[in-house]
Amino acid sequence: MITIGEAFSWLNVDDRSHLSNVNLLSLYQLQDVHVPESHKEALVRQLRANSHSSRDVLEGLEVLVTIARYEYEKGDYAAARQDLVEAVRRYRPISHRAAVAKWMLGIVEWKLMNNNQAYANWFHAREIFQRCAVEKGRVSASDMVRWYYKQIDKMRLDMACTAEEAYYWLNLFEPSRLSDPAKQFAKQITEEIVQKKYAQAYEIGNLLAGISTNRLDPAETAEVWVVIGLAAHQMGNPRWAVEYWSRGAAAFTPWSHPWAVVRWMIGVALWSVPGEKDRAIRSWVDATETFQDLRTQSDRTGDANRRDWYENTARIMKAALEQMMREKA
Q1: Could you name the domain of life of the organism this protein comes from (predicted)?
Q2: What pLDDT sits at residue 206?
Q3: Confidence at residue 54, expressed as pLDDT on a 0 to 100 scale
Q4: Can you spell out the DSSP letters for 233-296?
Q5: What domains does the chain contain, in order, with CATH numbers?
Q6: Is the CB of residue 259 less than 8 Å from the CB of residue 253?
């Protein structure tokens, strides 16, 4: 997993630090174990004030991001979130440093169990790095192109271990089969989860399940179970998520793209359930092998875009499985 420290180390790649000696000294003091906590708190307040008054905008934002890293590492996630939200707001939207701040913000949001917000920040950060790589390619900056794609691979690996990334894959090549009412319920579930209103989210999930039982389209029914399973997973109930996703997988055509996606999601949940390591491995192997088969089929039909996507994603899935097996050994 990409740590907050590793993401922070990306901030000034291909550039220099903009910190003045005064701010640099104050930030060093935050790491000094001999400096009293009361003094450190006063330093953070002063540094925040400096971040707004600095003539060099990039210096002010670097101060905020550095403070956020310090706050995260001492366990003050709410404060880290506040400073990173401010940094993201003030950085130029499609820029290298904005992407770094967004990735760091995603790490903080994930720690706060704000999965949707975390994934959105990671998704945008990855997208910006992809754009940066293209821009560097246009000016023949080959070292930076390689650097960006190396980090993008790390990002993809981390994101592949989330149910949110797998859900993004679900309708990547075919449109959602959810009816308009079902889409509205799914949106409401997400909104309630973002606000931590879990009881309301469960109620809406029950209504959504009721809709699905009255539909003739099995693909819609399957997708409804995927939505409800994702909600259960985000609310901290992996066993329920597995139950709902298993219903979804049973309704999809075996060895199809959506079936493989749901098998991957089941594995994501099972990794967090004690004693379910073997089932998690089996689910991820099924998904990976299916994507490899779909890669071959896409190649035979001349669909280069799908072929390349399945090839790259299956590679990341294999790496994710290897990483998870090391962590769970």
Answers
A1: Bacteria
A2: 84
A3: 86
A4: HHTT-HHHHHHHHHHHHHHSPTTSHHHHHHHHHHHHHHTTSTT-HHHHHHHHHHHHHHHHHHHH
A5: 4-160 (1.25.40), 168-328 (1.25.40.10)
A6: yes
